[in-house]
Amino acid sequence: MKIIIKLLTFCLVSITGLVSAGTMAFASADSNVKISETSESSSSSSPSQQFDSTIRVGETYQANTQLGTDLVYESVTFIFDGVSTTSKSGKFVTNKPGILTVQYNYHYKSSSHIDTALGNLIIQILPENAGKTSALFRLYNPNSGEHFYTNSSIERDSLAKSGWKNEGIAEQAPVIDKSVPVYRVYNPNSGLHHFTIGLYEKNQLVSLGWRDEGIGWYSNSDPENGVSLYRVYNPNSGQHLYTTGSAERDQLASLGWRDEGIAWYGLK
Fold first, then answer.
1. 241-250 burial string, b = 16+ CB within 10 Å, else e?
2. Which run of H or E residues covers position 230?
């Protein structure tokens, strides 16, 4: 009985060490996983949920296979999205956001009986673009005078080949799900695009025949730490222009364009 108690105590201490070791317990020489050293909360879980580490969609999670001098690693059981899989290599490739549970299977050197580790590791899997930024490109059509905005380099290059002038990067936009969306609509009659964070404005234009082209990009949800994108309107041509330059805004206003305030916010 004393021997069994000692073995159980050692097992719990060993596993507790793995859980509390954070980055050190999971950073391997051949791992390309970015591990956070502090616990984070997921928007899809309860606010109090704590995580042992965090990775992004598309990254490979590599479990630590070195469990100590008295424990022999057998495999890892991954539980994700209701499905349980066992891996000898300890690798798990993520394909969508969610919560990954990692369970170790091992045995003591003095025994061939395989045990399952108590105290599973909980890994947060974030969207691929979480916390990243996206460049918003600005193009100009010298024939129609229209300005166009896109965060797609493919669309930018396609328009440039068609004669549009690439005017560079208008701003850096956040690429995170909880940001304020900037909607993109298209008028098939005039060929103009319109961009707005106003859901009501977007729906109103769609009801008038504009095509809803979905979310173009996102606005910074923290205006105090953002860059203002000003919106001006030409009443003669019906065109809108969006710019971070107050001088450009004021110059156009002096030429008869209407200053319609701040359209959305970019990142500093």
1. bbbbeeeebe
2. strand 226-233
Q: Are 233 and 257 in contact (CB under 8 A)?
A: yes
CA 28 → CA 66, 105, 250, distances in Å? Answer: 10, 19, 56
Q: What is the dihedral of CA 210, 214, 220, 222, to 10 degrees?
A: 90
Residue type, position 153, single letter: S
Degrees to nearest 5, angle at CA 143 with 141 and 144 = 75
Helix ranges (DSSP H) in 27-100 = none
75 close to 38: Cβ distance less than 8 angstroms: no
The residue to which tokens 């891996």 are assigned: 87
CA angle 209, 214, 219 (to 5 degrees): 120
**Burial zone of 88 (CB within 10 Å; 0-12 exposed, 13-18 middle, 19+ buried):** exposed
What's the maximum distance between 2 C-alpha atoms anywhere in the chain?
91
Residue 139 carries which DSSP code? Answer: E
- What are the structural domains, with CATH classification, of the chain? 2-126 (2.60.40), 132-267 (no CATH)
**pLDDT attached to residue 15:** 38
What gap in Å lies between CA 166 and CA 95, rounded to an integer? 35
What residue ranges of the chain have pLDDT lower than 50? Answer: 1-48, 118
